[in-house]
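Team,

Forwarding the record for the chain on the shared tracking sheet. I've put the sequence and predicted structure together so nobody has to dig through attachments.
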Amino acid sequence: MLLQLAWKNIWRNKKRSAIIILALAFGLWGGLFSDAVMMGMTESSVETAINGDLGHIQIHKPGYSDEYDVKNYIPDGLQILNNLQKNSAVQAASGRMLIQGIASSPTSSFAIQIMALVPGDERRVTNIANKIIEGSYFDSDKRNPAVIGKKLADRLGLKLHSKFVLSFQDLRGDINYIACRVAGIFKSASAQFDESRVFIEQTDLTRILGLNAPLLHEITIRVKHSDMIPPVLKELKGNYTNLEIQSWNEIAPEMAFLKDTMLVYSYLFVFIILLALLFGITNTMLMSVVDRVREFGVLIAVGMKKSRLFKLIILETVLLSLTGGILGIIIGFSTIAVFAKTGIDLSIVAKSMESFGAETLLFPTLPPEMYLILPLMILVVANMAAIFPALKATRLLPSEAIRSF
């Protein structure tokens, strides 16, 4: 009965209730959509890094990441790669030869990382092949083909089919050179990645170094689903105790930190919006109490317990807040669901997005659990907003309330 009475009391002043409900709804909608955009940008940055060269898991010889020495190759790397490609939990694995070097053109030179790979394997681990804007991804019959980023091509003044020279240190410490021809130019979401990598075929680098077989410095793994990363990581660490095996968030802790921080920020941002709306809810309920002082005085005079009156005001506030909150959640969820399919084109700020490492087509997203936690946050704020008006109502003296109003 108290619940029905509280619901009817909300609509005694329809205009006032409608205003606060709409304020709650649109405030939450704005907060949720803003959070979804920021989360989508963060997810895009993480996916760009994973799809660019990180993969889900990487294997190195211990100490490689400290010095990036060409001699720190993985013992029995080809055998390990072969075993991984047969693992049922692994979607794809690619072995890479990594060498720090310098790319030189007739006009300029720049320090880069040479990544010698098997194109067929790399296609299944990263998406660089899908980012080609000129030429092809090693579909060339030219000698020593190379695939470079658009940013590096502009820096070195290179175009499709242009020649340039890579210089690097071999296993003996001597400086080697390889003349390459630009077979393809790619453009990813990360400008830093685009200007710091040169991809060549593994067979070409193996030949230049005078080796019989490739010496792998890195094995990059993509699992079938991101939820499988922890068990696969645990299995590999148990099988290869003499190697350094890391997940993407261990290799790039700043990306993992950004993702976790953005999740905390999304909850905090919505809670701040609710706290700002709290004053509006409190004001609305105070006005409601002032308008009904005589009514409350009569109710107390005829025997209504003050604790019951307190509960009535709390219920009215909670119902008012939940109505606006749930409406805002529905609008927010619907808007995010639409743009999660169509995307938001941010090509007008493409340079800023590249510096952030995110795609220009942004897909907003929110963790599903947020839609479950948000009603609880609304309940907390509603109870906070109701305390002062409810206390004011219970402190009324029936004789004064009936006589004064």
